Amino acid sequence: MDAEWKAYVGGGCLAATVGAGVLGAAAAVVVPQLIPARKSGYFPAEAIRNLKAIDAAQTLFRDGDRERDSVLDYGTLVELSDAALVDSAVGSGVKSGYRFEVRGSPEEPGGRWMAVANPVDRAWGFPSYATNHDGGVFASPRRLVCNDACRIPPCCRPVGK
Fold it and tell me: Residue 66: pLDDT band by 50, 70, 90 thresholds?
């Protein structure tokens, strides 16, 4: 093998080795930071999916009069679960590290509702999420509560936009 070829091959191997080393170092820094989140059971994407499922379930519950009381109103979390519109884990109020709450408006039970998903343990720094009768999912760095007006608080930002 001539000197030029050896320098070319050696340089390529060196570049690959250095590149792999840099990637390895980056992984050594990033991956350990993700492990506690996985071990804690927090899955924000799943919380968002569950809020979207609650949104769809509310429409089915109201329009189908699932309570069979001739009143077109929205359901509580337990009612949505009992009607098999959301899974039982969501219906229990806690799933994937998030605590879910659903509430209809006391002033307009058939017109407005709100749902929130808050991390069970705020120490990890995961956001809270909310949705309501207007649709869409919103994120907040603060803990959220369902309010009587069923309005998304101004501290929330749209998810995925």
Answer: confident
**Shared-domain flag, residues 103 and 76:** yes
* 1/79 same-domain check: no
CB 76 within 8 A of CB 66: no
Range of the domain at 104: 44-158
pLDDT digits (tens, 9 = 90+) for 128-160: 999 999 999 999 999 999 999 999 999 999 997
Q: How far apart are CA 21 and CA 38, in angstroms?
A: 25
The percent of residues above 90 in pLDDT, for the chain, comes to 58
Domain count for the chain: 2
Which segments within 19-125 are labelled E, that is strand? 94-95, 98-104, 113-119
Burial class (CB in 10 A: 0-12, 13-18, 19+), 114: buried
